[in-house]
Amino acid sequence: MLDVPDSETSLDKTVTREIKIEPETVVRLFHELYYGSAEKTWFNTTWLGIPLLKCPLDLWVYQEIIVETRPDIIIETGTYKGGSALYFAFLLDLLGNAGQVVSIDVAAFPDLPNHPLITYLDGSSTEDDIVTQVEALVQSKKRVMVILDSDHACEHVFKEMNIYGPMVTSGAYMIVEDSNVNGHPVKPEHGPGPMEAIERYLKKNDDFDVDRRCEKFLMTQNPKGYLCKK
Ligand SMILES: C[S@@+](CC[C@H](N)C(=O)[O-])C[C@H]1O[C@@H](n2cnc3c(N)ncnc32)[C@H](O)[C@@H]1O
Predict the structure, then answer these.
(1) Which domain CATH number covers 207?
(2) CA–CA separation, 225 and 151 (whole Å)
(3) Is a pLDDT exceeding 60 seen at residue 128?
(4) Which atom of ligand 1 is nearest to the CA of 83?
(5) CA 183–ligand 1 middle distance (angstroms)
(6) Sequence-distant (≥ 6) Cβ neighbours of residue 3 within 8 angstroms
(7) What is the pLDDT of residue 17?
(8) What is the mean pLDDT of residues 80-103?
(9) Domain of 183?
(10) Residues enclosing ligand 1, CB less than 6 A?
(11) 107, 42 Cβ separation under 8 angstroms
């Protein structure tokens, strides 16, 4: 239960105190707190008991996108322990459509959660055999959504965007995860990553719009990473 102070106490004093701080600074400081206490925050986030590596603010945006766009199939690169695939499967199930989730990982994590809507593929997201399997799965689908959350090196993400971008259907999303690293605004030591891949992709292709409305909760791990297919 929330501990709400009465009007004579500290909250009143806090809100009336003038704070001169730019919104971007607040967002950066929140990122630093969130990443600085990762054991307590994103390494300690679960969906129905299964770990997943996403900020709850982004998970809420995912929910809104999925409800609005009703994908028939969601392709996720980077399964990890299966929590995000399970989250998407439950949302599709709740919507009552016949959607499915295909989640790809190069590492075979044990005890992935079973769900009738989830198919796991073992292998690298960019290897021919995996891509061929995914192409076959999306072929007859009207609404295809893609989430890129595997290797976050720029080269790999750029390659994934070129492979999976064309599979996304008009009005659906390709979400490029973790574009906040390499100093955008966290982990400056990361090196070129998803943000650089997004910028490189958008310079060469005009098939997606960056949907900045998806950054409405201010803190997102995917700045410029919510891409809507034209
Ligand atoms: C950030 S985690 C995925 C988190 C998960 N989507 C979630 O939200 O809980 C990244 C995963 O990508 C996998 N990975 C790394 N390189 C890959 C590749 N080339 N192809 C597919 N998966 C890869 C790793 O094994 C790891 O499990």
Answers:
(1) 3.40.50.150
(2) 15
(3) yes
(4) 9
(5) 21
(6) none
(7) 60
(8) 95
(9) 42-229
(10) 52-54, 76-80, 83-84, 104-107, 124-125, 149-151
(11) no
Question: Whose C-alpha lies nearest to ligand 1, atom 9?
Answer: 52
Tell me which of 106, 126, 147 to substitute to probe ligand 1's pocket, judged by most ligand atoms within 8 Å of the beta carbon. 106
pLDDT of residue 98: 77
Q: Nearest Cα to 149, choosing from 69, 48, 42, 68?
A: 42
| 36 assigned to some structural domain | no
Which pTM value belongs to this model?
0.92
Instruction: Give the pLDDT mean for 162-175.
Output: 98
Element of type H or E holding 126: none
pLDDT at 3: 43
148 CB-near residues (< 8 Å, 6+ apart): 77, 78, 125, 157, 160, 161, 164, 174, 175, 176, 177, 194
Above 60 in pLDDT, residue 4? no
Task: Indicate the number of domains in the chain.
Answer: 1
- Report the Cα 176 to chain-centroid distance in Å: 6
Amino acid at 218: L
> Which residues, 6+ apart, have CB-to-CB distance to 143 below 8 Å?
69, 70, 71, 72, 73, 169, 171, 172
Atom of ligand 1 nearest to the CA of 82: 9
User: Please, are residues 100 and 119 in contact by the beta-carbon 8 Å criterion?
Assistant: yes
Q: How far is CA 145 from CA 39, 123, 131, 151, 158, in A?
A: 30, 20, 15, 19, 17
